[in-house]
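Reading a protein record of the kind used here takes only a little practice. The integers have meaning only within a learned vocabulary of local backbone shapes. With that in mind, consider the following protein and its fold in token form:
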Amino acid sequence: MKNLTVRVEEETFRDIEALTKLEKCDKSTVARKLLSMGLREMKKKHAISLYREGKCTLWKAAQTASVPLREMIETLKAEKIPVHISPEDVDEAWGKAFEEG
């Protein structure tokens, strides 16, 4: 594990302290969980943006967001973004399936 020092607003600090009591853990654990959740959301938003702009395939969007293909499809549907499965998506999915098998 690496160390990261971050300055936060007073209100954010108080919120983290409050979460430590709710979660019954230390501030570092809460901060790691929050960072992890935030990173996942930012990666998803970035992938959605790339897909919406036609800059990547559905499969690549899922990889960018680090989520399963099915989750990416559900996310796009929830965002009311039309889902188009291209031949490239099928090729990538098949290739990945045989790669892992």
Helices lie at 10-23, 27-52, 58-65, 69-78, 87-100. The chain has a mean pLDDT of 91.
